[in-house]
Amino acid sequence: MAKSFFSDTELATGQETMSDVLIAWGNEVVKALKKSLDDKTSDNTSGELEQSIVVLPINYLGQKWQLQFKAADYWKFINKGVQGAGKNTAIDGSKARKSYSNKAPSSPFKYTNKKPGVNFSSITGGSLRQWAYNKGLNPYAVRESIFRRGIKPTFFFDSVVNKSLKEDLIERLEKVGAKEVEITLSKEFK
Length: 190
Hints:
The chain is built from seven helices and eight strands; from the N terminus they run αααββββαβββααβα.
């Protein structure tokens, strides 16, 4: 059942309106996501993911407000990690196997048979080769490690977007007169 909202002018109490609350809250969420990402990732990254996190302009659609966030497509892999493909049969065909520790055993994402590209990788958001060189590493060895061991989750998003964040938004909206609040997270942010 859809919940009703009133127009900005009907909800104005004092100086703050519904859109003021949404804009301020959205900007705070973006700032918190960027700080969380910065705190949980290593130095010498391109910073592309951090720069891609933005709040889009707020829309008023009839009786509903729409607040959207945008980030580079690979944010989910950095947040939840990626399971590695694991064991590998020896190159010479012998029965010897090498075991690899999986960095993200509970991730919903997994490498199976396709290795990340060296010139472009959705995981790093750009050139895996450049990232490896910035770290002083061999890009082909990094690719093999990522494929076999996976990518460790950072939970930069999960640590920010949680129940208390939603409750904070509801509380703020109620202060400006919202009688009923319905928050729907897009499939992208679940």
